[in-house]
From TrEMBL, chain A:
Family the UniProt entry places it in: Belongs to the adaptor complexes medium subunit family.
The name this protein goes by in its record: MHD domain-containing protein
Location in or out of the cell: Cytoplasmic vesicle, Clathrin-coated vesicle membrane
Keywords recorded for this protein, A-Z: Cytoplasmic vesicle, Membrane, Protein transport, Transport
GO cellular component: clathrin adaptor complex; clathrin-coated vesicle membrane
Alphabetical GO biological process terms: intracellular protein transport; vesicle-mediated transport
PANTHER family: AP COMPLEX SUBUNIT MU (PTHR10529)
InterPro entries with a match to the protein in the record: Adaptor_comp_med_subunit (IPR050431), AP2_Mu_C_sf (IPR036168), AP_mu_sigma_su (IPR022775), Clathrin_mu (IPR001392), Clathrin_mu_CS (IPR018240), Longin-like_dom_sf (IPR011012), MHD (IPR028565)
Domain MHD: 170-426
TrEMBL record, chain B:
Annotated spans, Disordered: 1-24, 645-694
Biased composition (Pro residues): 1-15
Comp. bias intervals (Low complexity): 651-662, 671-682
Protein name listed in UniProt: Beta-adaptin-like protein
InterPro entries, alphabetized: AP_beta, AP_complex_bsu_1_2_4, ARM-like, ARM-type_fold, B-adaptin_app_sub_C, Clathrin/coatomer_adapt-like_N, TBP_dom_sf
Record function comment: Subunit of clathrin-associated adaptor protein complex that plays a role in protein sorting in the late-Golgi/trans-Golgi network (TGN) and/or endosomes. The AP complexes mediate both the recruitment of clathrin to membranes and the recognition of sorting signals within the cytosolic tails of transmembrane cargo molecules.
The keyword Secreted belongs to this UniProt entry's keyword annotation: no
Keyword Transport: yes
Keywords: Membrane, Protein transport, Transport
Amino acid sequence: MAGAVSALFLLDIKGRVLIWRDYRGDVSAVQAERFFTKLIEKEGDHESHSPVVFDDGISYMFIQHNNVFLMTAARQNSNAVSILLFLHRVVDVFKHYFVELEEESLRDNFVVVYELLDEMMDFGYPQYTEAKILSEFIKTDAYRMEVTQRPPMAVTNAVSWRSEGIRYKKNEVFLDVVESVNILVNSNGQIIRSDVVGALKMRTYLSGMPECKLGLNDRLLLEAQGRTTKGKAIDLDDIKFHQCVRLARFENDRTISFIPPDGAFDLMTYRLSTQVKPPIWVEAQVERHSRSRIEMMVKARSQFKERSTATSVEIELPVPSDATNPSIRTSMGSAAYAPEHDALVWKIKSFPGGKEYMCRAEFTLPSITAEDAIPERKAPVRVKFEIPYFTISGIQVRYLKIIEKSGYQALPWVRYITMAGEYELRLI
Amino acid sequence: MAPPPAPPQKSPSPSQPSGKSEVSDLKLQLRQLAGSRAPGADDSKRDLFKRVISYMTVGIDVSAAFSEMVMCSATSDIVLKKMCYLYVGNYARCHPDLALLTINFLQKDCHDEDPMIRGLALRSLCSLRVPNLVEYLVAPLGAGLKDGSSYVRMVAAVGVLKLYHISAATCFDSDFPAVLKSLMLTDPDAQVVANCLFVLQEIWNLEANKSEEASRERETLLSKKLVYYLLNRIKEFNEWAQCLVLELVAKYIPSDSDDIFDIMNLLEDRLQHANGAVVLATIKVFLHLTMSMTDVHQQVYERIKAPLLTLVGSGSSEQSYAVLSHLHLLVMRAPMLFSSDYKHFYCQFSDPSYVKKLKLEMLTAIANESNTYEIVTELCEYAGNVDVPIARESIRAVGKIALQQYDVNAIVDRLLQFLEMEKDYVTAETLVLVKDLLRKYPQWSHDCIAVVGNISSKNVQEPKAKAALIWMLGEYSQDMPDAPYILESLIENWDEENAAEVRLHLLTAAMKCFFKRPPETQKALGAALAAGLADSHQDVHDRALFYYRLLQYDVSVAERVVNPPKQAVSVFADTQSSEIKDRIFDEFNSLSVVYQKPSYMFTDKEHREPFEFSEEIGNLSLGQESVGNARRYDESDKDLLLSTSEREENGGPNTNGPAAAGYSAPPDYNSSLVSLSSQTQSETAISDPGMPKHTSQMTLAIDDLLGLSVPAALAPPSLKLNPKAVLDPGTFQRKWGQLAVSISQDCSISPQGVAALTTPQALIRHMQASSIQCIASGGQSPNFKFFFFAQKLDGPPSFFLMECIINTSSAKAQVKIKADDATASEAFFALFQSALSKFGVL
């Protein structure tokens, strides 16, 4: 048995069953609920519990989304990775239907939820989790009389991710190249880890069955075509494609060709492990004056070309949890004490390349501390930012061709953006 | 289905309607609408149905409205129908009599012109799970499987499985498996094919233990023809179905290396699939296919590295968690694999702690000479930084790395720095580690003791840490000026010490200290012995009494017992046998890996996958009634035997190879002990060659405790077996799981033996004559597999367990022996070999 699950539960934040679907009739909801409420009660912080828990012959696997837990119960030795992934897909599908998945939206839509659970899984085996396809035969507005329902077209289609007969007045494609920079810097200011995770996010509004072809400045591709690579080409480490991409062709000649699904999807993701220069660099000096006050001096520097500008820069600086009376000065942007996060949050709306800004802050500390105070949790400095029209890897879309047999002209729009991923500096 | 009618006490919260009056109100309204053809009637029905469904969901029993709901089901409105199916599915099982009412309209709907309704009706019909209604299922299912719409066929395929679970006999009588089989090979729709596949897999897996035919059927699911057929269509399947197919392919036994490369080339691009589950399933295929080809296997590891690292770093934390568990397993098999990628396992501040924990384990596992410095630096960062459980884990990780490494210089310094941090939990964890380090590297005692001596015992509260500190005080009392006085003050507070572990150590430490610095300790020792004798804890009392009498008997003997020259512990016992690790590896990409346990340890019997080797032993418990009789198990299926034997032949470098090498030179096995694998070593590490090979954990513990060394005879007595040995299969299975392999070797079989081995029974009868009993066997020419056992005639009951795989075409037998008394296994093996050589001759 490839590991069918016995039931799928949707639970509220306290672990009580909102809805469940019993696929195989060998687990009990009461038992699952009792187990799970105990689990989250005991832990308090559910994060500390692993997402796979075993109890009395049953393996429970769960994820959390907003105030809802999604959990499967299985008696067999099921495939952990695929079930956890499946649960995330279920979230995506619900989000597609109800915009946001939370307790309320589930309560308002019992009937549709049941229908979806039935089509996404049968007898404990995952079936379809493509929201686009499911929405063809399970419609929320089906509760109006006039809508006629057809069986899923795409199910029988050779191209399972796209239905035939899609029409748009204006044919457009939006392609966003989004790169997130993950950086880890230690207290000596050395970069101990850096990588870039990129994604090509597409939104397609195209009629018929369009054939798309995408060209990147991928070094291997350019070399395969015998072109000279004048430092513009890049090496992509681990590329993953949406199922629509013809992987065999990519293997042969590195061309990316596909019939896109309708709407939004991730065409491709990649990773770059070559070390990059951190776009925003932060230096901090902290002085503690005995136990009475703490002074911080923070410098932030943008290390990218002047023609780019970082936006929504947010630098979160940890401060002791008992700090009070902040006095803050900044040379740019605004900084505010956020006691709920034990942090000073410095926001800069627009941060052009090659600039350096300062922030000074002073806090008072209580002069008396408990003898056996809990050890301080030292948090890293965390940075968030977005740099539009810029990719840190240097990836470029050379062309995006769209060919459809009706011969319409489609407009491709390409956008680049680089943002902070896990961007941590253990400075203080 | 939605919740079963909740027991009445599951009271709805005050805001919800209490139920009773609401339900009767609903009933009334439904009845009024049932016959109505007025325009708008469907609309009002929908509202009512919706209310019924939401009551049902929040746990109010609305089954009372069953007949009204059925009456209203005569409608052409699909939304109403769906809600009605939902309702019926929920209550049918508890109200079988009422369920009969629904059969009629469900059957009718199975002939509806709308395929959507046909499919839904069929699904509902099959999901009723009412045994006495199965007869109504057969016709609609048969029609469903031939339906023009793939949606209906898809539903019908799963319906067969549902029918099987209600009534297997009906399922077979209607010949549905055969229909599914042909559907699987011909249907144009990939999802129908996938559903047929898992249905057949599940049915034959469950049936395989019951009939020859079923196990043959299961074998055909792994035939080259089918596997290639599915592989060629793999791109048509959706992601979940691909996982299913890949799971099947991982069990396929390739005929030759071309076969392997064909499959790998075909699947290469699956490693780039966006769905992590597909990637992992592909990795499983690659790993299992190349088991026999060591160099290719290594290349596979290189190839799968990048996709695995990406899976860890991107996606949800849950995914990272599951993937990290798999990485951990892989690293155990190929330690060098990720040694240069260690940075990927650095913890992020935002990682949930279950991910951090696994990352720490990874960092521990991949530490080697080249990266230790960086890894330990990073780990030290966590010790002070993050939450306490993780800080503890990371200190432990540093310690584990120290124990693995040859060059521990830098690490010891770090550990000692931890002690200076003066945080209670850090100190506690570190003390335990320093103790273990000293046991392995006594040469560091000088540096460590200097620092440990500065720790005030008042700051150490955790029993484990306290015990460790006391152990060091006793062991190194000559280097610590304060040792006797610290011990003395600890002994004074004897009554306040709650943990027996600490009190035990206190006794031993006082003894040790006494022999090193008698005048200073005498008083303390007296107090300790007196307190120990009065202790209510049995072990503490006994140990105190033992020391007391020992001192009475002869002080110099007591000194030899308590303070013997000690050998450093070279390897600490590994908790998991390589056998179990191999089994987990066989179940790659499943919960087994997450739990680090083979599936038979956590699933019920009926939910197990019979493919695995463990099941085979698990089956044995079926034969309880014929205990002792050599009994052949037809049920243990041939393909299973073949596949396991294949795997074990190719078992990879770290199965039990080195152990076998260590023992394969019988005349001189004392010297060969040196080259034992770590696993065997861990069991014999303490006992030096001159000692009897009592390797049980118990003796080890005592040796460790007291450094006891008893001279004993070397030659094992010649072995006699009990001709009437009895061992029940359950015990066999348990022992097989617990014991380590003591001998793993190949031997050859004479041509006469090969000729005589036409059926397993022949050998079984022959072995019985030599007092070696068979507990399970199976296979077909040329591959046979046997599980034998034997018992030592005299002395305490001591069993030998043996797995024997014979390939008659190569005239070779592969033997694995596990024994209660591992020292006698050589003799047992000799006995077995001589018996085997006589096979066919007599």
